[in-house]
């Protein structure tokens, strides 16, 4: 199941390929029961397995035996991953949808708590850290204080965009507001470049300072930032288990994680600047500011990948291939399967092949049913299922690319 093919044909006589572009060659001997209709959303009955994938599942004892062999840990890890993948593709699509809905309902309140707790805490900590920076005159603490101001802005922007996305007019914005949060993360991340001001001021301080006098140690400032560090740690722990449930919480978790080392490092360098060497404080400010810029830069890059259409995870594409290929015996081949990001969720394209003599109403109904089932899978924003009767044609878009010299 791990070999990936591109622009080839996928048939029901071989194990389903694992690629985002798949085509079909031969025809599977007819199997009389539809895997989707048989399951009836029940996990108690085993779903049909026309490709005998279940034969590839290893027991825990077999995996343990592999792990004991020389260099067997990687092999055991591979087979454990294969077990999970096989179980996933054999599970009815209704079960995937229902489990995702149950998880979403269960996480709704914890996610709301994480968002509001982070917003309220960041407002309080911003005041605390700016007091520490101003009263101590420490550049390292100033860098952490500026970052705390951005924390509030980030929280407010994410919260507003999330509410805005839910209320968008579908006539004016047909694809909905799913991409608004992604765009907001990019715009706000670029604003992190304000830390360049701290870098310039710290560098100027190092260059122009004419004496080696240590700055005055200000204990209340250190206590204030230490309190902020403790609160951030609690928020980090709470958001850790919820980061996969919501894109908002994931961004908040990353923010709390970054703040942990920034605040901790800021305390060390500010204290070092007043107890050991004066230049430790501005040096710490430069390092913290660079860390903030790099952290936000990575966030911006990741969000750009989502808007640019990054491919969905390989395991998800395999799930779509298998479910489409086994959806009905009238689907004899798969020509193309693609799944890619359009914001935080996926767009899925499936080109199925049916017999040329299939009635139009039947081809339409089957493709529509498959499309509806895919669209309710978790993390799928939109699905498109197209029907053809052969796989020898060349897509028009590829012809134009060839004529224009792009491929």
From TrEMBL:
Gene Ontology BP terms: inorganic ion homeostasis; intracellular monoatomic cation homeostasis
Record protein name field: CDF-like metal transporter
Annotated membrane topology: Multi-pass membrane protein
Cellular compartment(s): Membrane
Transmembrane helix is among the record's keywords: yes
InterPro entries, alphabetized: Cation_efflux, Cation_efflux_CTD, Cation_efflux_CTD_sf, Cation_efflux_TM, Cation_efflux_TMD_sf, CDF_Transporter
Annotated Cation efflux protein transmembrane domain residues: 116-303
Region (Disordered): 1-46
Keyword tags: Membrane, Transmembrane, Transmembrane helix, Transport
Sequence ranges of Low complexity compositional bias: 1-20
One function term, GO molecular function aspect: monoatomic cation transmembrane transporter activity
Domain Cation efflux protein cytoplasmic: 323-389
Transmembrane intervals: 113-134, 140-161, 182-200, 220-240, 284-301
A GO cellular component entry from the record: membrane
């Amino acid at each position: 199941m791990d070999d990936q093919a591109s622009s080839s044909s996928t048939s029901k006589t071989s194990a389903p390929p694992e690629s985002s572009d798949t085509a079909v060659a031969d025809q599977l001997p007819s199997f009389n029961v539809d895997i989707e209709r048989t399951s009836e959303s029940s996990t108690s009955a085993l779903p049909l397995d026309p490709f005998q994938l279940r034969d590839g599942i290893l027991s825990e004892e077999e995996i343990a035996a592999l792990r004991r062999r020389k260099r067997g840990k990687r092999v055991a890890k591979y087979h454990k991953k294969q077990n999970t993948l096989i179980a996933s593709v054999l599970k009815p699509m209704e079960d995937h949808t229902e489990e995702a809905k149950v998880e979403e309902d269960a996480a709704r309140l914890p996610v709301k708590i994480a968002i509001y707790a982070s917003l309220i805490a960041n407002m309080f900590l911003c005041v605390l850290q700016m007091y520490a920076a101003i009263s101590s005159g420490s550049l390292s603490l100033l860098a952490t204080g500026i970052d705390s101001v951005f924390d509030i802005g980030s929280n407010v922007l994410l919260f507003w965009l999330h509410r805005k996305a839910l209320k968008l007019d579908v006539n004016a914005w047909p694809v909905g507001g799913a991409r608004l949060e992604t765009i907001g993360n990019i715009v706000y991340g670029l604003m992190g470049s304000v830390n360049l001001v701290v870098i310039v001021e710290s560098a100027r301080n190092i260059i122009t300072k004419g004496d080696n006098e240590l700055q005055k140690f200000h204990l209340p400032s250190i206590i204030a930032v230490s309190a902020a560090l403790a609160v951030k740690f609690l928020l980090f722990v709470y958001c850790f288990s919820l980061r996969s449930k919501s894109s908002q919480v994931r961004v908040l978790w990353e923010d709390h994680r970054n703040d942990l080392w920034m605040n901790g490092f800021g305390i060390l360098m500010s204290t070092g600047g007043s107890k050991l060497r004066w230049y430790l404080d501005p040096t710490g400010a430069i390092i913290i500011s660079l860390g903030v810029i790099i952290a936000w830069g990575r966030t911006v890059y990741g969000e750009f990948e989502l808007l640019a259409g990054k491919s969905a995870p390989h395991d998800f594409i395999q799930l779509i291939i298998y479910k489409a290929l086994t959806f009905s015996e009238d689907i004899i081949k798969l020509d193309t399967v693609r799944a890619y990001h359009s914001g935080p969720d996926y767009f899925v394209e499936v080109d199925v092949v049916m017999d040329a003599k299939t009635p139009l109403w039947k081809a339409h109904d089957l493709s529509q049913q498959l499309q509806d089932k895919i669209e309710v899978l978790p993390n799928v924003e939109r699905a498109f299922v197209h029907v053809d009767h052969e796989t020898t044609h060349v897509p028009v878009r590829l012809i134009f690319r060839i004529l224009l010299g792009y491929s």
